[in-house]
Specification:
five-stranded parallel sheet; alpha+beta; binds adenosine-5'-diphosphate; pyruvate
């Protein structure tokens, strides 16, 4: 096992990774920016080091500085969390070169999945179904129109290097391409440093269903069941649940085995997530996230497997101790992302100081958070306050517990999406589990 792990991240996920370390007897190191001097995660760590000013480009994205701290303090592993450098193959390579274990897949695997076009091609080769579309970059409007007419409208233009729901546009007709292609190319260039775009069929009324996988260095891989993440705003997840209400044992086996095949095809190791769109009995590979996901908590709740500890064990070379037949589902879990954002103003972030704070608790409730009373949510980073997860023996019980926990949760000082979550959970269509990625738009759910 590692002796000392540096967590190259902040907030709740830094604490999550450090909790896993602590349980395994591994010393922890935090790195923090100017804005995070007094943050909880920096206090939680055994050691904490300042790495730079608030903008992430000068702190949490400063690879050389982070590696220098790791070397100076004698860390033998780096946990990247999610976001920031977690899916940066250059960073993984720099860790490898510095003799520090990057707690995640190899830089090569990250690189293959980091480009959506390269990932699609690798999946086609491995016999994994992908959304109909192009397997190469699309450069001109004429080319785009030709492709779209062959696959049929509507289509979606996507940035190959895209992430976080940024760099996507739906096109319904030939005229729709007028400025769309160029605009996505320039968004992609400025957000991801890569203007490459491609075109896919826009799958109508899909569900987003993803499979958690774990793979070791020795070719062993398992799927740790699925999560349904259809409740999204701006193509970003807001509420997730596990298992999926549409899943059957046969479909789970088929999708799960496909996810494992996808991972094996690129020699993947560590924890990862294979995302699919599901529509009318068919499923299509969307992308693979080569890191621990925000929503991993609900998988932990229904399977009892500690994914963060598994990441550490796999990274230090242990053989996967879990066999597919050992993994079973107990009950149901839901996660609500509690954000400082205004649902009545298009979910705009609402950073500021938390004046009163009391988190929820009681049976079946898990709160992963990096905030406290008096904490200031910084405009420099994401607006997450916490992840509220609820477990129940049935879906109904999980929903009822979540509703009760949302009622208990007190956050004063910033606008939060708690009232919005309450409205979704009360919605009869949600309660029936009839979910699609259009749920929020279709039902125009607004505050109490
Ligand atoms: P990102 O990497 O930005 O998260 P994804 O490719 O994972 O992008 O897509 C995010 C979300 O966008 C999906 O969950 C889905 O709601 C929507 N989406 C992406 N591609 C398609 C598609 N071809 N058809 C319909 N919806 C899509």
């Amino acid at each position: 096992m590692f002796k000392k792990v540096l967590v190259a991240n902040r907030g709740e996920i830094a604490i999550r990774a450090m909790r896993a370390c602590r349980e395994l007897g591994v010393a922890t190191v935090a790195v923090f920016s100017e804005a995070d001097r007094n943050a909880l995660f920096a206090k939680y760590a055994d050691e904490a080091y300042y790495i730079g000013p608030a903008p992430s480009s000068q702190s949490y994205l400063n690879m050389d500085r982070i590696i220098q701290v790791a070397l100076e303090c004698g860390a033998d592993g780096i946990h990247p969390g999610y976001g920031f450098l977690s899916e940066n193959s250059t960073f993984a390579k720099k860790c490898e070169d510095a003799g520090i274990v990057f707690i995640g897949p190899s830089s090569h695997a990250i690189e293959q999945m980091g480009s959506k076009i390269a990932a699609r091609n690798a999946m086609v080769k491995a016999g994994v179904p992908v959304v109909p579309g192009t397997n190469k970059a699309v450069a001109s409007e004429e080319e785009a129109i030709e492709i779209a007419s062959s696959i049929g409208y509507p289509v979606i233009i996507k940035a190959s290097a895209g992430g976080g729901g940024i760099g996507m546009k739906i096109v319904h007709s030939k005229e729709g391409f007028k400025h769309a292609l160029q605009s996505i190319q320039s968004v992609a260039a400025s957000a991801f440093g890569d203007p490459t775009v491609f075109i896919e069929k826009y799958v109508e009324e899909p569900r987003h269903i993803e499979f958690q996988i774990l793979a070791d260095k020795y070719g062993n891989a398992v799927y740790v069941m699925e999560r349904e993440c259809s409740i999204q705003r701006r193509h970003q997840k807001l509420i997730e649940e596990a298992p999926s209400p549409v899943m059957t044992p046969e479909l789970r086996k088929q999708m799960g085995e496909t996810a494992v095949r996808a991972a094996k095809a690129i020699g993947y190791e560590n924890a990862g997530t294979v995302e699919f769109l599901y529509s009318k009995g068919n499923f299509y590979f969307l992308e693979m996230n080569t890191r621990l996901q925000v929503e991993h908590t609900i998988t932990e709740m229904i399977t009892g497997i500690d994914l963060a500890k598994q990441q550490l064990r796999i990274a230090c070379g242990e053989k996967l101790s879990i066999k597919q037949e050992d993994i079973s589902i107990r009950g149901w879990a839901i996660e609500c992302r509690i954000n400082a954002e205004d649902p009545l103003n298009d979910f705009a972030p609402s950073p500021g100081k938390i004046r009163r704070y009391r988190s929820a608790g009681g049976p079946g409730i898990r709160v992963d958070s990096g905030v406290h009373m008096g904490y200031t949510i910084s405009p420099y980073y994401d607006s997450m306050i916490s992840k509220l997860s609820a477990w129940g023996q049935t879906r109904e019980e999980a929903i009822d517990r979540m509703k009760r926990a949302l009622y208990e949760y007190v956050v004063v000082g910033v606008t939060t999406n708690i009232p919005f979550h309450k409205a979704v959970l009360r919605n009869p269509v949600f309660r029936e589990g009839r979910l699609t990625t259009h749920f929020i738009d279709d039902y125009k759910i607004i505050e109490d």
